[in-house]
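Re: the pair you flagged

First of the two:
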Amino acid sequence: MDIEVEDQPFDLDFHPSESIVAAGLITGRLQLFRYDDSLSHSQTLWSTTAHNESCRAVRFVDGGRSVLTASPDCSILSTNVETGQPIARLDNAHGAAINRLVNLTDTTIASGDDDGTIKVWDTRQNSCCNKVEAHEDYISDMEFVPDTKQLLVTSGDGRLSVCSIRKNKVHARSEFSEDELLSVVLMKHGKKVLCGSQEGVLLLYSWGYFNDCSDRFVGHPSSVDALLKLDEDTLLTGSSDGIIRVVSILPNKMIGVIGEHGNYPIERLAFSCDQKVLGSASHDHVLKLWDAKYLHEDDGTRVEAQEVGNGANEDMDLDVDVEKRGHGSKRKRKSEKGQTSAQKQASDFFADI
């Protein structure tokens, strides 16, 4: 199902309990939509101007009662989901454009900016409780590891870092990969960290050995901007060639293609709360909702590889590439089946206002 949005979306997120999806747009607008179970009809709930500049990050919080957005205008905004009215705004939350948000606990969130700085916010006090200068370039993606209370962070400086929330410092940092790292996901029951790169290579790091990647999975013809875990052995990738692929990890194999956004780069991928719907955001002014129920079938059935657009890969094993990585160019920004993966948890934000 295609949901037309007002302009190019930068991020999307699903409500933690209802059939609602939010989209943050390049214009700074925030839009909320309700969709039916058959993915045949959608309804615009409301649309509002959340920021003066683009809305780069969107996350539902507080059990879905509010939605959080962040922007290059350095602010973080909390908006009421039912009314679309602002609850509270944290101006000058960062000294640089905010690029990513991630939920940590019920009372803490993390934000990453274009200077490589990560901040942790105590939502009970509406204040910054930790700050880590983790990278030298923009924070491209973050994933929280609850068991260790750490953040996996990728950056445009070509490094992966592991940031300790408890100790407020960088626990480990990889060497320069000579390519921008754009996305990150934890797999193999916490044993492997995967990073998507500007050149389309998936870098595999072994937990505890972050200095350099242990494997390189070549197969994407363009940059891998979005990663989404399907199960511990399988992930979905969103690439700048507009194709959403299903990929097996160790053994490394392109399983197939879910769909495409034409030749428009894919910015974000997300699952609905019940994992039955996959959402994708691209530069084509459309949110696409895909029926993902078949991806979780117990018989292990996977979508067969199919050629969709230029650069689609057939079902085949790909050898690990051990050649030296080439230098990646600076990522251009616009001006502004198996067991299911763990569901996102909602956290309070700007409480008691």
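Second of the two:
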Amino acid sequence: MDFNVKKFASGAGLFFTRAVQFTEEKLGQAEKTELDAHFENLLSRADCTKLWTEKIYRQTEALLQPNPSARIEEFLYEKLDRKAPSRVTNGELLGQYMTDAAKEFGPGTPYGGTLIEVGECERRLGAAEREFLQTSAISFLTPLRNFLEGDWRTISKERRLLENLRLDLDACKTRLKKAKVAEAKAACDGEMAPDFQETRPRNYVLSASASAAEHELRVAQTEFDRQAEVTRLLLEGISSTHVNHLRCLHEFVEAQAAYYKQCHFHMQELQKELGRLPDAFALNSTNSAASACSASEGPVETDTLKIEEVQAPATGSRKAKVLYDYDAADSSELSLLADELITVYTVPGMDCDWLMGERGNQRGKVPVTYLELLS
């Protein structure tokens, strides 16, 4: 118990001495040991590295997981040293909803079939996103977090210790200066310099003997120099940190590029699949229009229409934009290319699902469902 009290008293006295030295420095009443310019540059570089690493880390977290609640949940699981449960991505969830909806509407319907195709694509996009998030967390976020929670904490601890030893060193310099002034004054007065080492704590003695003060100063200077060297080595390691973070940044860019490449590929495949679906739309539209036409106009002539006998009307022709490619089934039809413009007009006796189309000297029947009539 006695040892603990003495230890506590010694620590309190040391803390008080440092507080006095720090206050006097702020008030300009005490000298402060300045670090060399190179050391100051290392400190400034380390602070800058910590600041921007933390900002990049936080914003990357927000990019990969925009939901703050989910980030807090993952943080808590990490602190509890437990594995976070697998989380379904938004793309996977959307794909599942689309697939379920297609089952309700009927996968054989145009809408249901399209929902299935888009839903599968969304699920593949979600899986690609999940892989990207995992890769980015391992290759980029983890090294940044290790620096902030590991290396930087060590640097901060050693810097605080260096600052405390610097305060002790300057306090010793102040005590030595006061001791020499007191000794000189006593010598002038013909008196011996008083020694209060045995009656007062060492940290509070203002007029200690010059020899004792010099010994304390040498010890404090040695400890300060040793700690300054340790801190310098840690600060110089920031260069290695930059090299490591640069490598991690390249890996993050590669993961991001691979992710967007996969997304682009999946969307292109989806567009190709959707490009084949208009045939079903055309069939449904043709059947509906044929039924309406039969009901309103009665029996349709079944005689084969001779294209060479059809003459373009003087009025009533219109421009039309081709929506999809179309291959002519026989010589009476006109093959079409998507996005081209043709001239169309109606011909008496022709099925109402067809129009007569012209492109230069070429002429033939074209399906209405493949056209967008322009005004």
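The helical segments are 2-26, 37-64, 68-79, 90-105, 110-188, 210-236, 238-276, 278-297.

-B.
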